[in-house]
Amino acid sequence: ATAPLLSINNIEVIYDHVILVLKGVSLQVPQGKIVALLGANGAGKSTTLKAISNLLRAERGDVTKGAIEFRGERVDRLTPNDLVKKGVIQVMEGRHCFAHLSIEENLLTGAYTRHLSRSELKSNLDMVYTYFPRLKERRASQAGYTSGGEQQMTAIGRALMAKPSMILLDEPSMGLAPQIVEEIFEIVKDLNSKENVSFLLAEQNTMVALRYADFGYILENGRVVMEGDASDLATNEDVKEFYLGVS
Ligand code: ATP
Asked: With a cut of 0.90, is the ipTM above it?
């Protein structure tokens, strides 16, 4: 087997020097796969993604144990920007678009760490519009006045402008109607198969995530309590009972 693209080994995360939130989490994302990180509200999904992207510092969080490797190289000490240059980018929960900028301006902000030429910018933008035709139609609209689904698409599109090999996607389904959620997951699947983008996807919507993911990890109270192929997890009785609301 080849080494995983991303590998997290036994990480511990503490907020404010005292609040132990991740209690030894290990997981892997193989090259070219979609991996779902599942679990209830507060289980530690966002914290795991932020530990990888190094966005924890801003929230007074710290990785106090363990190792994070991307392409076999330790990345725990990199800044978020240096990680983007290595090809890893996070799309934050809650989307965080610049409300007063147009959709296209929002997309263009995603490329700034990469120092692209005009023609590269243009071709990345065309690539984003190929996957998100809806953003192309709405490109001149002020982001703050677009729908929740369009803002989520803009957030993913902005990340794509940096040409990542891996996207850390936090709760893409949050607050969106089921039909839009499907639309977004279809695009994620497409990006995965056609642009070879690997995904680590945090989701509370277990059912949908397992339909699109290859592999899943279930977090509970800062620990991985179950892991397996997405299709196996989706049919596992315990998973169904506890996380799908089916008994
Ligand atoms: P959600 O779906 O709500 O984002 P989650 O599984 O992503 O849930 P986290 O956001 O990672 O969970 O939160 C895990 C735990 O860490 C929670 O108990 C939360 O209250 C706590 N926590 C998160 N951020 C901080 C912070 N900045 N300071 C202190 N505690 C925090």
From this structure: yes
